[in-house]
Amino acid sequence: MITVILCAAGKGTRAKTPQNKVLHELNGMPVLCHSLSAFMPFAGEILVACRKADEARVRAILSPFPCARTVRGGATRGESVFRALKEAKGDMVLIHDAARPFVTQKIIKDCIESVKKYGSAVAAVPLSDTVAHAFKGCIADMPPRKSLYALQTPQGFFTKDILSAYEKAFGEGRGGDFTDDSGVYAAYLGKPHIIAGDVCNRKLTYAGDFMPAERVGFGVDTHAFAHQDEIDMGIARLNLNYITLGGVVIPSDRAIEAHSDGDVLAHALMDALLSAIGERDIGYHFPDSDPKYKGANSMQLLSIVMEMVRIKGFAVKNASISILCEQPRLSPYIEGMRNNLRAALCCGDVAVAAGTNEKLGYIGEGRGITCYALVLLQSNRR
To answer: In this structure, are 164 and 265 located in the same domain?
Structure first.
C-alpha cells in the first residue's frame, strides 16, 4: 500500500492570504483539494499534516476523500513529516507539499516506479538560469549549471527507510537541519534517485501565485459600411478601395465607417482580452471622442492591450475569431490574418473563420460586418 503525506502545516505568510495558503481557493477550489485529487488514484491512505488551528477546516475538505485523515503537524516541516511517518501504514510513502497543486499523474507514476527500482525518488528539474554563491552582496563562485537541479515534491521512499532516517536525525537533534526529505535520506541512507519533475509543478508561495491559472474573455464588435453620400459629404471616413481586418488590407468596393482604421477583428479581439483581465472595454481605453485615435492603426492598439495583459500576469493560450461578412470574400486573406495575430498575441494557436449571414439581416444585406472573439489566457506566473 502507498501512503501519501501532504505537508499542510505551514502558515504561508509570504502568500499574504487571510488563512493557511493551502485552504485558499485556486480556480474555485481550495489548493489542498487539487493536491488530494492528484494523489487519490494511487493512495491507500493520505495523511494531511496540519496545524491545530486548521484541523476542523481541513477535515471538512477531506470528507469526499475516504482514505484521507489529518495528522497534527509540528513546528517545522521535518517535525510534521516525522509525526506523519510514525502513523503511516503503507510500505511505500510519497511525501508532497500540499502547496504544489499542479503535480502531474506522470510525475506520481514515475515516483512510484523509481522507489520500486531504486528505493527512492526525488522530482527535480534542471536549472535553466546561471546560479551563483554570494558573499556580502557579491558573487563569490558560480558552480557549473549542468549539474544543478531544483528539487520538487513528491519525494518517495520505502516507509521503513525514511522513517529510520528521520529517527536518526531527530535522535541527533538534527531534525530542523533539513529543508526536505531527500536531505534526510542522503545524510543517513544514501544518494536519492532523481526523476524528471516539471516546471509547472511549482510551489505556491506568493500572492501572485494564486491568481486563476486560466481566464476566458469574449468580445464582439460591429461596424457599418459607409454610404456613398456620407463619404461624399465627409461624414464617414475613408476610401472606397479597401477594408482592414487583423492588420490585413483587403480590396473592397465599400469602406468601413469608423473613427480608427475600422479593423473590426482587432477591436473584437481587444475587447475579449480586456474582459479576460477584468478591464473596461476599448471604448473606455481608446474613445472615439479622442482625436489622437482618429485613423489609428488598430494592431498598434492591440499591442497596448497585450502589454496590459502581460502586466496582469497572463499570456494568451489560444484565440478563436469568427467574422460575419457578406462581401468582400475573406477566405484568401485568412492566413494573413492568422499570421498577424500569432505575432501580436505571441501565440501559435490562433483560429480565424469567416462566413456570410445567408443574406439575412444587416450582414446579409451588406450593410455591416461583425466579428466575435474568444480568448483563453493562462497565468505566466505559474
So the answer is: no
CA 206, 207, 210 angle in degrees (round to 5)? 100
CB-based contact 273:305 (threshold 8 Å):
yes
Number of domains in the chain: 2
The span from the CA of 185 to the CA of 193, in Å, is 10
Instruction: Give per-residue pLDDT as tens, 60-101.
Output: 999 999 999 999 999 999 999 999 999 999 999 999 999 999
Pairing of β 149-158 and β 120-126 = antiparallel
Helix, strand, coil % over all residues of the chain, rounded to 5:
35, 25, 35
Range of the domain at 94: 2-207
Residues 246 and 219 in one domain: yes
Provide the sign of the torsion angle of the four alpha carbons 81, 206, 36, 192, taken in this order: negative
Q: Which of 35, 86, 97, 26 is nearest to 62 (CA)?
A: 35
Higher pLDDT, 268 or 235: 268
CA angle 112, 113, 115 (to 5 degrees): 65
Q: Does 199 lie in the same domain as 152?
A: yes
